[in-house]
Automatic annotation (TrEMBL):
The lineage of its organism: Eukaryota, Viridiplantae, Streptophyta, Embryophyta, Tracheophyta. SUPFAM superfamilies: Magnesium transport protein CorA, transmembrane region. Belongs to the CorA metal ion transporter (MIT) (TC 1.A.35.5) family. Its main location: membrane. The gene is LOC18613226. This is Magnesium transporter.
Length: 393
């Protein structure tokens, strides 16, 4: 028995954005007019609504860890970009967890940008297909895209802006921490930089996944062609004649340049030739933006590596200073040992003939021992300087 679906207007829910027990199964449906409806349904109802397989819907499950993915299916686009988990059709957008703090701005942006008010009227006669009609199309062709492309653009712009904002926040925290670490090496500063480096590594992986997904789409024209839902829908409804083609066929800058001056049916023929230039330009724009974010993280990583190298050099310098101090202490110990040897010899109770009447011998022994200690210490210092263990004065 099918589960009942309750439709609740968004306006009645915006006032209270508290998370409820059903938030994990909450969706918001936004149509081409920008109207939103909250759907508290299970996954089976969603599968029946958009005709999607369970394996594709599983990608949007927040309990499962799936990488960033953009999948083109027969009638839908499955979008999993960080917190943006959406299903895009040719007529509506289903967005998961609409009450999430990161998703609320995306819902507002979709409602603002999905309506397309400057569509060309469908009921124009054949005589309007000449110069006057083409001039009107040239005026608004830059802003007219199929519904699924407008929804995809909002999602890509939101995720690129979100990741770029996280990168700027990380830069704001990391650069001062690194400067403080270079000025004073302490356990507190080292632990702080360690945490920031771990956060940077996680953020880099997230940005890299989004970049790889866009790059994979750009490298495969067939995958990009699968994202043209309106084209496939129009081809299924009217495969021969051009009467069922949507207005954006004629308004697209890529498509409009290929339309024949004598027949509208040739426009559909052009569309069936896997022309993906329009989508390619859209994806390339956000690919460059996500690439710029990744370059910022790469620069930050290089700065951290340079700081680590500088700290290692400082630690090596401190170790050399400790070696120098140890060498000096060892040299002093050797000199004191010579004096101790002299004192031990003179302190023994052994009768010597040179002790009687030869008091001047004590002075000579002490002077000879001092010269020997000084020469020994000088030789050690010269050897250490030759080996580079002690810097020149």
């Amino acid at each position: 028995m099918a589960r009942e679906v309750y439709l609740v207007p968004v306006e009645t829910q915006v006032a209270s954005l508290k998370k409820k027990t059903a938030v994990t199964t909450s969706w918001i449906s936004i149509d081409a007019k920008g109207q939103g409806v909250i759907l508290d349904v299970d996954k089976y109802a969603v599968m029946r609504r958009v005709q999607i397989h369970a394996r594709d819907l599983r990608i949007l499950d927040p309990m499962l860890s799936y990488p960033s993915t953009i999948l083109g299916r027969e009638k839908v686009i499955v979008l999993n970009l960080e917190h943006i988990k959406a299903i895009i059709t040719a007529e509506e957008v289903l967005l998961r967890d609409p009450f999430d703090d990161n998703v609320i701005p995306i819902v507002a942006e979709l409602k603002r940008r999905l309506p397309q008010d400057n569509l060309t009227c469908q009921g124009q006669g054949e005589e309007e297909e000449h110069l006057g009609l083409r001039n009107d199309m040239d005026i608004g062709e830059e802003n007219e895209f199929p519904f699924e492309f407008r929804a995809l653009e909002v999602a890509l712009e939101a995720i690129c802006s979100f990741l770029d904002a996280r990168t700027r926040e990380l830069e704001t925290d990391t650069y001062p921490a690194l400067d403080e670490l270079t000025s004073k090496i302490s356990s507190r500063n080292l632990d702080r930089v360690r945490k920031l480096k771990s956060a940077m590594t996680r953020l880099t992986n997230r940005v890299q996944k989004v970049r790889d997904e866009l790059e994979q789409l750009l490298d495969d024209d067939d995958d990009m062609a699968d994202l043209y839902l309106s084209r496939k829908l129009a081809g299924a409804s009217s495969p021969v004649s051009g009467s069922g083609a949507p207005n954006w066929y004629l308004a697209s800058p890529t498509i409009g340049s290929k339309i024949s001056r004598t027949s509208r049916a040739s426009a559909v023929t052009v569309q069936e030739d896997n022309d993906v230039e329009e989508l390619e330009m859209l994806l390339e724009a956000y690919f460059m933006q996500i690439e710029s974010t990744l370059n910022k993280l790469t620069t930050l990583r290089e700065y951290i590596d340079d700081t680590e190298d500088y700290i290692n050099i400082q630690l090596d310098n401190h170790r050399n200073q400790l070696i120098q101090l140890e060498l000096l202490l060892s040299s002093g110990t050797v000199c004191l040992s010579i004096y101790s040897l002299v004192a031990a010899i003179f302190g023994m109770n052994i009768p010597y003939t040179w002790k009687e009447g030869h008091g001047y011998m004590f002075k000579w022994v002490v002077m000879f021992a001092g010269i020997l200690c000084a020469s020994t210490f000088t030789s050690i210092i010269s050897y250490a300087r030759h080996k580079g263990l002690v810097g020149a004065a």
